[in-house]
Structure formats: C-alpha cells, structure tokens
Amino acid sequence: MANNDDHFKNVISHAKEYGYIFGSSEIYDGLSAVYDYGQNGVELKKNIREYWWRSMVYMHQNIVGLDASILMHPTTWKASGHVDAFNDPLIDNKDSKKRYRADVLIEEYAEKLEQKAQKEIAKAKKRFGDDFDEEQFVTTHPRVVRYRTEQKEILQRMARSLEAEDLADVKALIEELEIADPISGSREWTDVRQFNLMFGTKLGASADSATQLYLRPETAQGIFVNFLNVQKTGRMKIPFGIAQTGKAFRNEIVARQFIFRMREFEQMEMQFFVRPGEELKWYEYWKETRLKWHLSLGLGEENYRFHDHEKLAHYANAAADIEFNFPFGFKELEGIHSRTDFDLKAHEEHSGKKLQFFDPELKESYVPYVVETSIGLDRMFLAVLSNALQEETLEDGNTRTVMKIPSILAPVKAAIFPLLKKDGLPEIAEEIVELLKWDYNVLYDEKDAVGRRYRRQDAAGTPYCITVDHQTKEDRTVTLRDRDTMEQERIAIEDLPQRLRKSISFQSWLTT
Ligand code: GAP
pLDDT by residue (tens digit) across 407-444? Predict the structure, then answer.
C-alpha cells in the first residue's frame, strides 16, 4: 500500500492519464490553482452535482433551485461584508520573497505539536499493548499535556489577535515561536497585512466610467438577493430552502493540494429560511441530513468527522465542518452554518428594500433566519477520486489498478465489447449501445484483447463491462462483468436495462 504522499501523487497523475483533470492552459505552462476537467472528469462532476441536486431539490418539497449570475451589483459585497472582511492575513519573507498566510504558518506550527503528542501516544500504545488507557495517558503524561496546552494557547492567541485585527501581535507570535520560512529557513519577516480574496473586474468600456465589480466569492449571496423573488413566485412558506450550484472565485494565496484549494471552483449551496428561534433545531437537522448524504455513497463512515467551530464568524451562532479523510489528512469538505438573519438584514439596510416574510400562523412579518449547507463540488470530486483509486493484489499474485467510484457517480456506466472484431459480434455490441444509451453513458470498445479492455475500464472507473461472444449469436446472452468483484454473470440482452437500473438508480443510492 502506497503511503499517503505517494497515494496523492498517484491520484493526480491517474486523474490526468484517464482524462479526469488537466492543468489549465497547460500548453502555456499552466495557471496555478486553476484546472480543467477532461472527458471523464466532466461526467463525474456532473454526476456529483446531480446527486446533490436530486437529494436537495427533488427529495424536499420545500426546496427549490436557482441559477443566479456570477456578476452581481457591487453593493452586494459591501452588504455581505466581503469588501471589508473577506481577507487573509499575509506575511512575506524578506529573504526568499515568498508570501505566506500568517495564520497558516502558525497553524502548521501548532499541528507539529499535535504530531509530537500523537507520537508519544503511539509509543505508549505499543509499550503497554492492551492495558493502555489512552484517556488517562493524555491527561497525565507531562510531555503530551505540555504539547497540547501549548498548542491550544497558540491557537487561542492567534484567534484573539485576528478577531481584534491586531496584526502586530500575529507577527509577534510568529517571531516568538521562531517560525522560519519553510523554503529558505530565514526568520526575516515583513509586517502582516490583510489581503482581500475577491477577484475584481470592470463593467463598461471606458476606464473612467467603468464600475468596479467582483467575481462572486460564494454563490450564497445570489440566493439572498433573490429570496423574495423565489418566495413570492414559488408561494413558498417558511421553512423553505433555495439550492444553487455554480462557480465561485477566490484569489487564494496558499493554493496547494491540487483541486482542494482552487482559485476558480464550484460550490453547491443551499440556504434554508426558518423562523427566528428555530434555527438551531434546523442546524442539527441539516448536520445530520448532510452526513447521511455523504454516507450514502459508501466511501466509509470512518472517513468523515464533524468539526464544530469554536470561533464563530460574526454572522453565525453555530457552525460545523464535515471533514473528510483526504490523502493529506482530515480536512473540511462541507460547511453547515447557522447564519442568523445577518445577510438578509444587511441587504435590507443596503438596498432599502424589505426582505421579510409574513408568517400566516404567527400573523407577523419577520426577517427569516438562515441555515446554510455549503460544499465544494471540486473538493467532493477529490474525496471520491482519492477514495476510489486502489492498487489491488489479485489471487493469482498479479496487481490491478482500479477506481471503485460509486456506480451512480461513475462517468461511464458500462463498456460494451465484441469479443472479436468479426463474425457479426460488433454489430450486436452496437445494438446494445443503442439499447442502453438513452439511459446511461456507455462506451463501445473493440481494441486489444478483452482482458486488457477490462483492465482499462477498471482503471477508468467503469462499473460494468458487457461482452458479446459467439454464444450471444445463439441465445442472445452476454457476460456482465462487475468492476469491484470481477465476477461475471451470463444475462440476456433484453434484461440488461433492468439489471443496470437495479444497481444504478438514484432511488437505491439515496435511500441507503
Ligand atoms: N457560503 C459559505 C461559504 O462559502 P466556505 O467555508 O468559505 O463557506 C464552502 O466555503 C465550501 O466551499 C468549503 O467547505 C469547500 O468545500 C469549498 N471551497 C471553499 N474555498 C475553496 C477553494 N478555494 N477551492 C475549492 N473549494 C473551496
């Protein structure tokens, strides 16, 4: 089994080799943290989006969709707080001239302390075996207690300083901890400055009269400004939700880890409007519902965990991340935020328009509270891909590369092969393509020996292969091979649609 670093490298190169992800404008040496989705990637992405959309919109009578524009009136971002507060604290190293996020440098330092604590725990576990009492050990072992206390104090001080906009203290902390530039080892730092993450652009032809616009940094604001349009035209009653998927843009400074942190990415967000005072009940509901959605895909319960936020954004009264076990550790995949009435109230103030709901039961109007679920589509893509890619040793000692992508998400659902390129077998295979193509993305392949064709589809993530052989001509049956078990069954051509429907239907996946 490859270690995590190797596994991650394999995921990146496999994604390219099999037409999932290419670097953007590669012929010009690429653009950092911007990616293109290839012929298989676009299908996987579409299928993840569809899986999310169906579970949100079709499964909830009180949730509807929206597709708002990327460019919005610039006051939107003043109201939402993005113009003033959507910043990262940056610091430059004077020697290497490299720029870093100050909070990330400190967090990485704190993470090293945690790793030291984990090392002590692992050593003790090995020494004491079954008698090991981890809870007692971590609360009494002096070094572990010291590492963890130090870590907590550092993170708390950083949070306090950032909250108070005390950037001098953030720099002081970096200096006190003697944090060095990871590349040059230098400790010569500039002051810490705030850097706004929004990409700006101009509307209008002449430089003087052009209006400053922003590429949206989240899709959520398109939902807030359309709250009344949807509520009134859809005759929606609270509680109700508006779901949207679409591109968002952030001028990320530390854009690493492949498609985990991109400058142009896609979000799938849902804002759920509720009665004031009921938001925490709905927050718990959405935490549970979203985790269930993730678990339905079968990527392994042990690969998810909640991270409840201790430090809350100014507009939130509760927030949690669903973290996924990526090849580089547990990291945020989705956020669930109880955003209070902050956004709608801010838009009321800045637009002068009322954004309220008349509640017929309470016989009063109010600005609804909002619970948001927000997931990065590209991050979900990475979760699926990194979990799916496996090197398997087979019973005969050979190995195979296989991508066990959940069949409901797989780009190609079935590959159809004539065993030979003659004797009328290709014609029957084409007939099967014709039968299945209305419901599934299927592929015809006649090149190379059938074993090699199987391996190619295993590596591409195709859940089924259908092979037409000479027996097919006699009894109209084919072999259906399962990617994961490699088992083959003989099945009548006419039963194929029903057989595929049994294992590739939204109903069977979304209800597990
Ligand atoms: N409307 C709330 C919001 O945008 P966020 O935590 O900033 O919240 C939500 O982003 C989700 O969007 C994250 O959980 C992550 O999955 C995804 N995301 C955020 N920044 C990203 C980036 N630079 N690249 C890829 N995905 C990103």
Answer: 999 999 999 999 999 999 999 999 999 999 999 999 99
| CATH level 2 (architecture), domain 1-72+211-391 | 2-Layer Sandwich (3.30)
- Closest approach atom of ligand 1 to CA 262: 24
1 pLDDT exceeds 70? Answer: no
CB 106 less than 6 A from any atom of ligand 1: no
For the Cβ of 220 lying below 6 angstroms from any atom of ligand 1, the answer is yes
- Atom of ligand 1 minimally distant from the CA of 260: 25
List every span in the chain annotated with CATH 3.40.50.800.
412-510
Write down the CATH number for the domain with range 412-510: 3.40.50.800
Closest atom of ligand 1 to CA, residue 335: 14
33 in the Ramachandran plot: left (φ > 0), alpha (ψ -120 to 50) or beta? left
Question: Pocket of ligand 1, candidates 77, 315, 379, 381: which has the most ligand atoms within 8 Å of its Cβ, to mutate?
Answer: 379
Q: CATH 3.30.930.10: which residues of the chain?
A: 1-72+211-391
> Strands, DSSP E only, in 312-388?
318-326, 329-340, 357-359, 364-366, 369-376
Structure tokens at 420: 């030979």
Which candidate, 374, 198, 215, 409, places its Cα nearest to that of 296? 409
Q: Is 185 left (phi over 0), alpha (psi -120 to 50) or beta?
A: left
Question: Whole-prediction pTM value?
Answer: 0.90
